[in-house]
């Protein structure tokens, strides 16, 4: 027996089909963001409990004076400082100076953190074998001051600090009192504050870190009230792939990803992000501009739990 569809049922099915076709057509013709004129973001995906990651691109300087804008590529990590199991670790004192240089991969393997980036500027640079290093700017590890606050406004006065009570903040060195210093558990310092209360203050950057020219960059930032800590590395000096950013371009990215406050750390050939999903399996996430890891003087890394394992599906 032949079944005849009612007029209402047939009309509804027709409307559904037409709607799906229209949606697919609109999606296909949606405007694709131009990475040479605007920041693009892939969207965050979970890595570990309380730790998410995304990639981004940033419009950067033309390769030539009359050329078109280029792009820079960034890896962005967002860390929920209130998540269970999350803690932050920095390089401790060692050797006759302040620290002993090592690659970020070596730091990750030695400390057991899930991921890490390079941190403070340092001297001397840049031996190919491990050696004692002098740190520039504040470095605090487990409450111990490895390198003191600088009182030179041209040298690493921008500080990221986390107190023993877990409060994270960004401040300039002169604003940190001796009493404040006693409360700090973890701290690193960089050349300039890029964002302050979501306002771009990168134009005030001192010359340290070459702020006006595109370079590989390592950045850290904090969300409103310091709940989320951001690690950002921007590849640079790789023709046709990633140019690098100025401090102003870096500030634009940090605001786009959700930071209220941000600072510029050591960059150039030091810039690096390393992950270790399993013990002993550290791998480099970014593309170091020198073609290999540099022996850096300090690092900042994050401990975190694995993501909960989802139950097996019954089918």
Itemize the secondary structure elements and their pairings.
Elements: H1 7-28, E1 40-41, E2 45-48, E3 51-60, E4 70-80, E5 87-90, E6 99-100, H2 104-111, E7 115-118, E8 122-123, E9 132-135, E10 139-141, E11 144-147, E12 158-163, E13 168-172, H3 178-183, E14 184-190, E15 192-196, E16 199-200, E17 217-222, E18 228-234, H4 247-257, E19 261-264, E20 273-275, E21 283-284, E22 299-303
Antiparallel strand pairs: 1-3, 2-3, 3-4, 4-18, 5-22, 6-9, 7-20, 7-22, 8-9, 10-11, 12-13, 12-14, 15-16, 15-19, 17-18, 17-19, 20-21
Short summary:
The protein is α+β, with helices and mostly antiparallel strands and 315 residues long. The protein contains four helices and 22 strands.
């Amino acid at each position: 027996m032949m079944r005849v569809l009612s007029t209402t049922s047939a009309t509804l099915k027709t409307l559904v089909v037409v709607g799906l076709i229209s949606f697919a057509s609109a999606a296909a013709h949606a405007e694709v963001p131009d990475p040479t004129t605007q920041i693009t973001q892939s969207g965050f995906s979970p890595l570990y409990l309380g730790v998410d990651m995304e990639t981004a691109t940033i419009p950067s300087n033309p390769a030539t004076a009359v050329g078109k804008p280029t792009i820079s590529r960034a890896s962005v990590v967002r860390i929920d400082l209130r998540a269970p199991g999350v803690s932050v670790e920095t390089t401790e004192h060692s050797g006759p100076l302040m620290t002993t240089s090592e690659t970020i991969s070596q730091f990750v393997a030695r400390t057991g953190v899930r991921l890490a980036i390079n941190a403070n500027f340092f001297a001397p640079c840049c031996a190919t074998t491990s050696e004692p290093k002098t740190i520039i700017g504040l470095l605090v590890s487990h409450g111990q001051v490895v390198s003191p606050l600088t009182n030179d406004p041209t040298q690493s006065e921008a500080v990221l600090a986390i107190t023993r009570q877990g409060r994270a903040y960004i401040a300039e060195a002169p604003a940190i009192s001796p009493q404040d210093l006693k409360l700090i558990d973890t701290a690193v310092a960089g050349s300039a504050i890029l964002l302050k209360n979501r306002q771009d203050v990168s134009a005030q950057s001192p010359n340290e870190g070459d702020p006006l020219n595109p370079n590989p960059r390592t950045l850290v930032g904090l969300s409103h009230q310091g709940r989320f800590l951001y690690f950002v590395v921007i590849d640079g000096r790789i023709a046709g792939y990633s140019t690098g950013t100025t401090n102003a371009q870096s500030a634009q990215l940090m605001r786009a990803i959700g930071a209220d406050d941000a600072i510029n750390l050591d960059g150039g050939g030091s810039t690096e992000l390393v992950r270790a999903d399993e013990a002993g399996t550290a791998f480099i996430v970014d593309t170091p501009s020198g073609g290999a890891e540099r022996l850096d003087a300090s690092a900042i890394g994050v401990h975190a739990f694995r993501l909960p394992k989802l139950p097996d599906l019954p089918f």
